[in-house]
Amino acid sequence: MIEAFVLLLFLVGLNHALFQTLRAKRGYVDANLLHLLFAYHALFAFVYYSYVQVNRSDSHQFYRVAMNIGNDWWNLFETGTPFISFVAAPFAQAGLPYAAVMLLFAWFGFWGFVYAYLWFRESVECEPRIFGNVNFLYVLLFLPNMHFWTSSLGKGSLIFLGMMMFTYSSVHFQRHWWKMLLGGFIVFMIRPHVLVFLAGGLAFGYLLAKGNVSQLAKLAIIGAGMVGLWLSANNILAITGLDDSESVEEFIEDFQELTTQQSGRLSTSGSGIDMSNYSVPFKMFTFWFRPLFIDSPNFLGHFSSMENLLYLLIFLHLMDARLFTFLRQSSPLVLMSLVAFLGVSFILSLMMSNMGIMLRQKSMVMYFGFYVVYAFLAWKQVAHQQRAQYDQAGMTQY
């Protein structure tokens, strides 16, 4: 544990230096907020570490593989689960114990929140309020389940970092193209199907973009998106065995069989639910917002239900006739977020029947849905302020 404590002190100092650099380049950055956010995330890392001392966790297996791989390290360089041990191996073989590697991966997950903070602040012209006069971004940055599932040695922390880095970098592609490539690479190595919707959504968003988006930027983003789609799609089909399908009809049949088998397998575990008779919209609702209190068998379920209820209240803000006007006028990032959110949710909701797994998996996609709500509320807030200024000017003239 002493190694983990020393690493924690080092990471706090490193964060301070990085936050000051960010603040020098971007005056809006609140270093105190980010320090508080790291302390909050580190608390959840400690909670997760305590949790896995008495509960089964894949993190133990990731560390064992990383520790024992020896000279065969590059054999782990492949998509999916082995890539986590590939990243962990240099640190484990350098002598860092399990607790310290857990903390390091929690730090990776924390920087996903930093990139989310930068993404929301730089791409939306104001900070909308919710639930009266609460800063919406602060609500999103401190959601407990989001921190819990991104604070350990596992896929959650790394893929969240990759997704947020990829998305933030697309705001200023010309300056941050290498971060976009790095983020996309991380996502691809862990879950190629997620990159399909990120790249496809980004290409779709820029294709329909309104405003000051140059034709060169559009072509570059769309080209990168198409390449990402092609690479990811081939990889996904090979992993699932669907590359043997010889026709569209056979592909659909194979996909239905795959999702049925996966759903049945997951529903046999502790918190499984039978979703076989659910409609697609209700499967997606279940993925996003359950368990709710009527589904919760224990304290952890009730705790998750409170946050899921908060999610539901947040998304109810989209039940507004002005949403379609907003989407027609929206930025490429809004369209990309919408495609990524709906696309990944659709695939995962077909393949998941275990609430515990759904809680973990949806941490990948919820920020894309939140961004759509965030941008919509900001758009309405700006429109309201403009109307108020117009009315005030009219009264003054009168």
Low-pLDDT parts are 239-252, 262-271
Shape: globular
**DSSP E strands, number:** 2
Q: Count of helices?
A: 18
Strand content: under 5%
Largest sheet: 2 strands, antiparallel
Query: Could you give the order of the helices and strands?
Result: HHHHHEEHHHHHHHHHHHHH
Measured as a percent range, the helix fraction is over 70%
What is the CA-CA span between the terminal residues?
Answer: 72 Å
The Cα radius of gyration reads 22 Å
Structure description:
This protein is an all-alpha fold and 398 residues long. Helices cover 74% and strands 1% of the residues. It has 18 helices and 2 strands. A two-stranded antiparallel sheet has the order 1-2. The longest helix has 32 residues, at 366-397. It is globular. 39% of the residues are buried. The model is unreliable at 239-252 and 262-271 (pLDDT under 50).
In a nutshell, what does this entry contain?
The protein is mainly α. 74% of the residues lie in helices and 1% in strands. A hairpin with a 3-residue loop joins strand 1 and strand 2.
List the helices and strands and how they pair.
Blueprint: H1 2-25, H2 31-52, H3 58-68, H4 82-93, H5 98-123, E1 129-130, E2 134-135, H6 136-141, H7 144-148, H8 155-169, H9 173-190, H10 192-207, H11 215-240, H12 248-267, H13 280-289, H14 299-315, H15 323-329, H16 332-351, H17 355-361, H18 366-397
Antiparallel strand pairs: 1-2
